[in-house]
TrEMBL record:
It is a multi-pass membrane protein. It comes from Clostridium gallinarum. InterPro entries: Mntp/YtaF, Put_MntP. The chain crosses the membrane at residues 6-27, 39-58, 70-86, 114-133, 139-159, 171-189. Signal peptide: none annotated. This is Putative manganese efflux pump MntP.
Amino acid sequence: MGLISIFMTGLGLSMDAFAVSLAKGFCLKDNEAKYSFRVAFLFGGFQALMPLLGWWIGTYFEGYIKSIDHWIAFILLGFIGGKMLIESIKELRHGGDDDVPTECERDDFCYKKLTVLAIATSIDALAVGVSFAFLNTSIIPSIIIIGLTTFVLCFFAVFLGKKIGSIFQNYAELFGGIILIFIGLKILIEHLSGLA
């Protein structure tokens, strides 16, 4: 998997975290840089940690399923991307009103709450890490690219959330789902064309 594909994967994976960061921005009243950095650091950190964990799991089982690795990568990425698309479409149909906080809590930016959100938004990256192991993707550059991409997007998403509200929140997840499905299809097509 090339650097562009890894970057695109990171972009797709970061869309959940981007959407949550936007929502956090709705609650921001002051200390923009401090809280933006806190959100970005935790979200980017877990988005890098989860693929590493998935890669380790995938490497351990690689010998058992090497012959079907491309199908596993395709299914995992397709499933994650499809799930993101479905959730995004549901939100768009319902107007996304439930996601816009009507009353922000005082501890909305506490480490405990942000860590739970960071883990929740990075679970998909665990499965992607498994697919990286099957594709013999170099893990260190991959997690650096994924982590930095998420960090940068989330940092600016908090500022953006404060400025524009909920207008673009649901479209971020839609975009992320499309990217992951595209990467999954690309992996499958490259493997099948290599067999021809």
